[in-house]
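Chain A, query sequence.
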Amino acid sequence: MKYDPKTFENKWKEKWLNDKLYKANFEDTKSDKFYSLYSYPYPSGAGLHVGHSEGMVANDIMARYWRMKGRNVIYPMGWDSFGLPAENYAIKTGVPPQKTTDDAVVTFKEQINNLGISIDWDTEVGAHWPEYYKWTQWIFVQLFKKGLAYKKKASVNWCPKDQTVLANEQVINGKCERCDTEVVQKDLEQWFFKITDYADRLDKDLDKVDWPDSTKATQRNWIGKKTGINIDYKIENTNKILTCFTTRPDTNFGVTFIAVAPDSQFVKDNIQIFPNKEESQKYIDETSKKTELERLQEGKKKTGAFTGLYAINNLNNKKIPVYLSDFVLANFGTGALVGVPGHDLRDFQFAKTMGIEIIRVVKGADGDESEITEESQVQEEQGAMINSDFLNGMNIHEATKKIMDYIEEKGWGKKVVNFRIRDWLVSRQRYWGCPIPIVYDPEGNPHAVEESDLPILLPTDVDFRPTGESPIARSEEYKKRAEEKYGKGWHYEADTMDTFVDSSWYFFRHIDANDSEKAFDSAKADYWLPTDLYMIGAEHIVLHLLYSRFFTKFFFDEGIVNFNEPFYKMRHMGIISGPDGRKMSKRWGNVINPNDEIAKYSADTVRMYEMFMGPLADPKPWNDRSENGVFRFLNKVWDLSNKISSTEGGGTPRLPSGMDDPKLLDQLRLVHKLIQKISEDTEILSFNTAIAKYMEFINAISAFEKIDKTVWETFLKVLAPYAPFITEELWGKLGNGYSIHTQKWPEFDPELIKDEVITMAVQINGKVRGTIQINPEAEERDAMDKAKADEKINKYITSDVRKVIYIKGKILNIII
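Chain A, predicted structure.
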C-alpha cells in the first residue's frame, strides 16, 4: 500500500478526541508535571493560518514528548474572544458579536484537531463565556477592594468621527484604523489598575525566568526603572519652581536647555505666564494629535517650542531656556528634563534642530576636548569630567555620586527612583467586552458589585453604533436590572474592560475550567503553575506579559498562590511570511490555510515542515517545494515499513550478550544515536535539527535489506511527537496495541552510542602532524602503533620518545 494519509488521519483524529487520549490527570499531584501553553488566540472569522499553527505544533511536540517521558501533562486551549473586530463587524452588518465569535471558534477547533494538536478540550475556556468572565469580574472586585482599581480622568486616544476611545494599537499613523480619521487626545474618566505599585518587582523578578534576553530587555525598557535625582530650578522673575528628573547630574554644568512635556502638569498649571503663550498653545494642540507610542518612536527629527521662560542653574547661576517638546513624556519622572546636548544623543538632536548651544563637559578616552558638532562626538557612557568646576578630572560615575550628594546637601534636589511604566487603563467604551462590576449610587459614588451577584451579564438590547459612550449605556435592560437590584437612581458602569484583562489570567482558569465556586483552586495552581513552556508571538512580549505577571503577583500577595511569576520558560515563534516574502494577509492574497495544505499533503507533512523551516524563533517564508520534500520523507518512512523483518518486537532494542550479527549491531547503533539526538534537540526546542536527524536515520537504515522490527518500532516512538498520525497507523500495522502515544519514551544505551572508530589528532611536541582512525576506548599502546605505522606522522619522530600524553578518544601528543 502507498502512503495515503486521507485513509487514516481523520480516523485517528476522531478516535483520539472520543477517547480523550490527552486528558490531564487532575487527581495526580505527585508526579512531575508539564504545562504546555500556547498564547490565548483570538478566534477571527478568517480562521488559523500556518503562522498561528507554528507555535501550536511546537507546544504539541513538547506535550507529546513529555507525556511519553512520564510527565503529567496539560495542554489546554481557550479563546481571547472579546474584542473590537467582532464589534466592528456587528456595526457593519448587524450580526451580533456572540454569533460571529462562536462560529469562528468552531472553525478554529476543527483546524486545530485536523493538525493533531493534543489538546485536553475539557480545559477549554472562552473570554466571552459568562462562566469565565464572572471570574474576570471577581478579580476586578478584589483589586477594587485593595485600592488597586480606581477611576480618574486621563488622556486617551479619541476618534472624533466614531466618537470612541481607541487603544494605542488601534491608531495607525495617527489615524483611526476603522475610519481613517485623525485621532486626538481627550481627557475622560477612566478605570485603572495600579500596576505601578508592582513596578520594582516586575523589573527585579525578570531574573527568575527563562525568557529570551531580548524579551527581558524589552520588558525592562517598558518598565523603565531609572535611579537619579529630582533637581529644582527656579523660574526667572517668578516664584515658580520647575523640577527635572535626571540620571546624569554629573553633566549639569553642561545644561543648555530644559524640555517639558506639552501635556505635563507644569504646563497645565503655568501656561498663562508663558511669554510665548500663543506659540506654546499651538504646539500643545499639535502634540495632542499624537499617540504616546508615536512620541516614543524616537527619530532624529525633534520638534519643540520655546515657552519664553528661563530657569536658573543653581550650580553656576546661568539662565536656561525652557522648551516644550513631545519627546518628553508627562508620565515619566516629573515630565521635564534637563538638556545636555554634548552628552545625550537625543538632547544633541533637539539642540541642533532648535539652534541651542552645546557645551562639552566630558572627554572620552581619546582625550578630545574640542567643540561637539557631530553625533559621533557625543560622549554618553564613559569619560572624565572637564569644564565642571569641582568635578573636573573625575570619571562620570564618581562625579555622578558626588554631585548628587552635593545637590541634596544644598537642598536643591532629592535622590529618587522613577519608572516609565504607568498605571493600566482598563476602561473601554465598547459593548463586546467584560462588563466592569461597579454600580453607582444616586450621588455617583462607585461600589463593587457583591460577589454573589456575579456575573453581571452583557445586555442584549444594544445599538452597536458609536456615540461617544459605551453602547451599554443606552441599554434599557441594563438600567432596569440595576434599579430593580439597588433602587431608583442606581446604575451599572457602562464601560467594559480592556481585553488584556481577559488574557492576563486565563492560564489559571485552564486548570479548573469547570469550577463554579471559585476562579481556580489554589492547590491545583500551586501544582500546575508556573507554566513549563509558554509559546507566544513577538507582538505580545510587552503588555500581555506585564499584565499577566501583575495579576500573578497580586494573587501571591493575597495568599492565593505560592509563586509570583506565571511563566517559567517562554519562547517566541518567528513570523512565517507568505511565499512572496510578505506578511500573510488577505490583502496580498498570500495566506496559507493549514486545511488546504493538509488536503494537498497530510497533517504530518504540515507539522514537520513548519518545524523544519528553520530555528523556531527565526522569521521564514513558506515554500511549497520544501514542504513537498517533507512529504517525500514521510512516503519513504511508509515504504520502509515493508522491509521490517519478522523478528519479534517489543521494548527498546538492546544488544544481546554474544551478539555477532554486525548488521543488527549497526541498526542498533543508528537507532540509539537517534534517541539521544532527538531527546536532546526536542528539550531545547531545536526542532529543525531533530527533523534533519530523522532524515539522516532514514537514509542510513534504507541501506539494509531488512530492518529489525524492534529497531523500527523504536524509531516510530521517537517520531511520534512530530508525526502523530503516520506513527499511530504504522504502530498498529505492526500488530501493536493502541496507542503509540501512550508508550514510554525509549532510553538510549550509552554503550551503543559510542562510535566504533573516531578520527584522532596526533601531535608531535604539541603540533598536529596527522590523524589516525581508532576506537575511542583504545589503549595508548594501540594509538602509538597506529601513529608509527602512518608514514606522514612517523617521519616527524626523529629521536627517542621522552613522553606520551594520551587522552582516550581525544588526542595523542608525542614528546621527543
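The two ends are 66 Å apart (CA to CA). Residues 655-659 have pLDDT under 50 and may be disordered.
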